[in-house]
Amino acid sequence: MASPFLITGVKKGWKTKSRFVLLAIIILATLPFSWNRRNNYYYLNEAPEQALAFIREHRLSLPIYTLSEETNHRISYLSKMERFDQSSDVAINLISMQETDQVQGGLILIFEDELTAAPPETWWRVGSFGTLGTPRILIYEVQTQAKANESLLGIEIENKNFVNLPGALINAGLFCKGYAAWKELAEVDSTDIRFVPYSVQSECETRGENSVDIKDLTQRNNIQGYIYFPTQSEESESLNIAQVTLPIYDMRTTGVTVDLQPRTLYIYSIDVMTSSPTATLFWRMEENENYFEMRSYPQWTTVAILILTPDWETPKPVTFFPVLFDHLDIVSLRNFFIGPVDLKTSNH
In the beta sheet, which residues pair with residue 249? Predict the structure, then answer.
């Protein structure tokens, strides 16, 4: 007697459906891994490509240095695809962090999540390249102090068109003059908010009134995905933050809004400590947004940037997010500051 499954086809239909169900489960299970691999491949190629395009556009002929084999291989490979101008004679060299103090003059390219500590103060950050939220490539201009002083010999300080002046001054350890030169150059073409990394150890600023407080971060709608709790010491003004939900929403919720005056220089700083890569000093105004860097901070570290506002007709609101993260580690913060500053013209 024939089986009713062979006559009705029910058994065959069940087998077909089960195959589709099993295939769907496999696809859904591997989708996050595949998407993550795609994102990693995308940013690991996009950031170096943008950095090399910047170097080629500005005809920077200094030697290029990298601090990891993977970055060195990627940049070397892409540089051949990008076909540098042969007259620029660009060389790409792999060195260690300990060897960077021997660089007479060059550009150091490094993914920001490879940094475990702040780079030397005399490194001038030329730019950052890549997509916000993924590790970007940072370009630093590096010279020995003797080489930087040599570069400054033929430079007229009043020449506003010399775009390398701030970097040469910072490389030479003349921090206050370097920041002042950057401000003067930025004011010439100040259609958007401009910012530059700032070393608080240089003590080149006189601060005005602070517009924010660390407790401001616990107010408004800043509790969508984070919880806040104080440190064990009652004397400390620090604040601990932890993520409590999956990052399926906009992570830019931990912030405060400040009205910034036109054509004014501000300092934006905070002390941070966390063991996982965290974006620091994020800011947003309308469609424009950026942040200082994204890396881990194993010890208390002060991060700061100088912000120069354009020649607006009226003050404009800017929202500041001192940290953004989607990991499960605790982020500790203290000494939150946003306020106007005056720059000193000379170092102590």
Answer: none
